[in-house]
């Protein structure tokens, strides 16, 4: 699990009634454009068994799905990355995940804090009000009042200010059974007297039904560090509703970090198609990361979050 367990404060997971309201134009969905062979259906399969041991022992231990991913996080992958710096997080990548300098991290990515310490990662996702974050569901449970978000955080500096988390929206299937295929959540934030968060940092578009093979930019905040780690890597399918990427150096604290495709090198934003979580709540080793597949379930949750 990529949660800094010793530093995690509990966050409220507000009930998310799934409604089909506005905002669909903010979601990029390839299923609306072309039929995709071998794509998952829109409804996630319920969890079937308890997942393997994850990184840490967080409050919300994720249940495993029926079947084991083809390449478990504990095995060595042929796509395993190295620590060779990348030119920029938006640059081209082979199947080898490569870490980029921390200075190339997107301003739309930041750390979630409680009690002065960061414990998870999150990113700004486009919304009508410009106040919405995406993270992993296993990062949130309990009381929201002590949680803040610092976008672009580094070396003790919050260049875009500190934002109070005011609400969390997670899927009913996560709340009832910690379904690893629903390990994603939206957080609403506020800062009194300020312009919207999105107007300051930019935001990623939410991408759904995008398929499994991509070159992504992965960003997260390891616990005990003051800078994010950024990697470019190639994604693959690991189970019906799970995807994986081999990127080195993503330990506890990086849960909720976004998987971004088509990142603009000027703005640092693109389309987010995953977030560290899912199988083994993100993976049992720091060099293989997982995400629940973004399909109609997260699109419905998004509509609930902006309604």
List keywords for this structure.
single chain; Thrombin, subunit H; 17 strands
Q: How would you portray this structure in words?
A:
By secondary structure, the protein is mainly beta. It has three helices and 17 strands. The chain has helices at 172-177, 197-201, 296-306, and strands at residues 27-29, 47-50, 63-65, 98-100, 109-114, 117-124, 132-135, 148-151, 163-170, 185-190, 205-208, 215-220, 229-239, 242-246, 258-261, 271-275, 288-292. The strands form three sheets. Strands 1, 4, 11, 12, 13, 14, 15, 16 and 17 form a nine-stranded mixed β-sheet that branches. Strands 5-6-7-10-9-8 form a six-stranded antiparallel barrel. Strand 13 and strand 14 (242-246) form a beta hairpin. It is globular.
Structurally, how many domains make up the residues?
1
Q: Separation of termini? A: 31 Å
**How many strands?**
17
* Percent helix: under 10%
- What is the architecture at the second tier of CATH? Beta Barrel
Q: Roughly what is the average pLDDT, rounded to an integer?
A: 77
Into which percentage range does the β-strand content fall? 25-35%
Global Rg = 17 Å
Structural class call reads mainly beta
Q: What series of H and E elements makes up the topology?
A: EEEEEEEEEHEHEEEEEEEH
Uncertain segments are 5-24, 31-95
Major beta sheet, specifics? 9 strands, mixed
**CATH homologous superfamily - what is it?**
Trypsin-like serine proteases
Q: What is the CATH fold-level name?
A: Thrombin, subunit H
| Shape call | globular
Number of helices: 3
What is the CATH C level class, in words?
Mainly Beta
């Amino acid at each position: 699990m990529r949660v800094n367990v010793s530093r995690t404060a509990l966050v409220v997971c507000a009930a998310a009634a799934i409604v089909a309201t506005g905002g669909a134009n903010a979601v990029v969905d390839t299923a609306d454009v072309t039929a995709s062979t071998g794509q998952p259906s829109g409804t996630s399969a319920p969890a079937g068994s308890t997942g393997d041991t994850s990184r840490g022992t967080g409050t919300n231990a994720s249940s495993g799905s029926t079947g084991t991913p083809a390449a478990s996080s504990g095995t060595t992958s042929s796509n395993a990355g190295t620590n060779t710096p990348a030119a920029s997080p938006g640059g081209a990548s082979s199947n080898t995940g490569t870490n980029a300098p921390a200075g190339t991290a997107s301003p739309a990515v930041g750390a979630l804090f409680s009690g002065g310490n960061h414990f998870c990662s999150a990113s700004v996702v486009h919304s009508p009000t410009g106040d919405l974050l995406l993270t992993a569901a296993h990062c949130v449970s309990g009381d929201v009042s002590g949680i803040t978000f610092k976008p672009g955080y580094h070396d003790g500096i919050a260049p875009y200010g500190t934002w109070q988390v005011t609400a969390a929206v997670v899927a009913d299937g996560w709340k009832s059974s910690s379904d690893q295929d629903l390990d994603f959540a939206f957080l609403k934030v506020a800062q009194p007297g300020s312009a919207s968060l999105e107007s300051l940092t930019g935001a990623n578009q939410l991408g759904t039904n995008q398929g499994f093979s991509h070159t992504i930019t992965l960003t997260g905040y390891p616990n005990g560090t003051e800078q994010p780690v950024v990697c470019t890597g190639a994604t693959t399918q690991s189970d019906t509703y799970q995807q994986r990427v081999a990127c080195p150096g993503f330990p506890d604290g990086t849960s909720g970090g976004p998987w971004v495709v088509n990142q603009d090198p000027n703005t640092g934003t693109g389309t987010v198609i995953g977030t560290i979580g899912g199988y083994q709540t993100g993976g049992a080793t720091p060099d293989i990361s997982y995400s629940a597949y973004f399909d109609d379930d997260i699109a419905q949750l998004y509509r609930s979050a902006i309604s």
